[in-house]
Write a structure and sequence with these properties.
Layout (H helix, E strand, L loop, with lengths): L29 E4 L2 E7 L6 E9 L2 E5 L6 H13 L6 E5 L5 H4 L2 H8 L3 E4 H12 L2 H14 L4 H12 L14 E4 L4 E4 L2 E8 L6 E6 L4 E5 L21 H15 L5 E4 L8 H25 L4 H8 L6 H20 L4 E4 L5 E4 L8
Helix pairs in contact: 5-6, 7-8, 9-10
Length: about 350
């Protein structure tokens, strides 16, 4: 792709071995590879499902990802335990990353099955920091950051209450005593077959995929989804970081190291083949968005809410505004880290972005 373009890449022709937009019924595991079962789990949110994976482990099972901490997900697990496998047969739980649809029921399952939860250090640290942060300090930092993003004052209280709410009881949270840490290159022998941890970041700090070379299978979590582009955002905890740069590097890593005929098992939508084309599409689309921002900034100095409309030129719900703002900031941080743009705060604390002045402008 020519990285000066603002056009999105053509959608690749992916292969769907189990049919496009087909999925098993909730609570009815379906075998997609030897000893690998697809468990579809409902979610009581707009993204209405998550795919979990059950790996046959000799006389037991390994669970990959857990579902949201909600009664509807607990009910599906009870169906699985009654009709498919016993909780006593579960040997370990692996969590790809800390987002609530993946880690939400991890503590509940760990207690139910009396096993450890395997997670990367980066994911666990961020998960715990969110649960244990000081509420007053959070509010102070959040107000400063929301002002920098140019959100109106009447939006602040709604956003702060939304992001500081944590209704999960302490006994439903993952704690260090039930955790075993894993990292890039670790290998799990599951049922006599080797699964290697392949990490990526950008969507989350240290997301773990599982790759089985023998069977040509990649459990990709949110790193590779056939038609959804995972949210890559800047938020309070990583406001000065470059998650988009990390995400593009992670996409390049999967593109360059995992064979294209690999069966990809994503956390959302359907299993597919064509990983390399999909990763390249995601890379190209982010570069197109960056070019749209570059062109817009050449016209005049802009705030994040103005730049958000360059990237998302459609009506957004309140929560989508938050996600879109985080993604826009991630693209601006990418340009800031490469010294392509400058940021200045006005007297109120709102950030304004512009190109550096050239010698002929001074």
């Amino acid at each position: 792709m020519n990285y000066l373009t603002t056009e999105f890449a053509p959608k690749p022709e992916l292969e769907y071995p189990f049919k496009f937009k087909w999925s098993p019924e909730h609570g009815e595991p379906f075998e997609v590879a030897p000893g690998v079962f697809w468990l579809r789990m409902p979610l009581p949110i707009s993204l209405d499902h998550i795919n979990l994976w059950l790996l046959k482990d000799h006389d037991g099972w390994t669970i990959v990802d857990c579902g949201l901490g909600s009664p509807v997900c607990e009910e599906v697990w009870e169906i699985v335990f009654e009709h498919f496998m016993s909780p006593q047969d579960v040997k370990r739980i692996i969590v790809t990353h800390f987002h609530p649809d993946h880690i939400g029921l991890a503590a509940w399952l760990a207690e139910r099955c009396d096993v450890k939860v395997h997670i990367s250090v980066g994911e666990y640290r961020l998960y715990r920091s969110i649960l244990t942060r000081d509420s007053q300090d959070l509010e102070t930092q959040a107000r400063s950051y929301l002002t920098e993003l140019n959100f109106p004052e009447d939006f602040h209280d709604r956003l702060i209450s939304f992001f500081s709410a944590d209704e999960k009881p302490a006994n439903k949270r993952v704690t260090k005593d039930i955790v075993e840490f894993m990292c890039e290159g670790d290998v799990f022998d599951i049922g006599g077959s080797l699964w290697r941890i392949v990490c990526g970041n950008g969507h989350s700090p240290e997301h773990c995929c599982l790759y089985n070379k023998e069977h040509g299978v990649l459990i990709s979590g949110d790193q590779a989804i056939p038609r959804i582009s995972s949210n890559v955002s800047v938020y309070l905890a990583n406001r000065h970081d470059d998650p988009l740069g990390d995400w593009i590097s992670s996409c390049e890593k999967l593109r360059d190291t995992i064979p294209n005929d690999t069966l990809v098992l994503p956390s959302h939508q359907e299993p597919f083949k064509g990983l390399q084309e999909r990763m390249q599409q995601l890379i190209d689309d982010h570069h197109a968005q960056l070019n749209r921002l570059r062109i817009s900034l050449k016209e005049n100095v802009q705030t994040i809410d103005q730049l958000r409309k360059v990237m998302f030129d459609r009506k957004l719900s309140s929560i989508d505004v938050v996600l879109a703002t985080g993604e826009t900031q991630a693209h601006m941080n990418y340009l800031l880290h490469r010294k392509e743009v400058h940021k200045e705060l006005d007297s109120r604390g709102a950030a304004h972005y512009h190109y550096p002045l050239s010698s002929k402008d001074t």
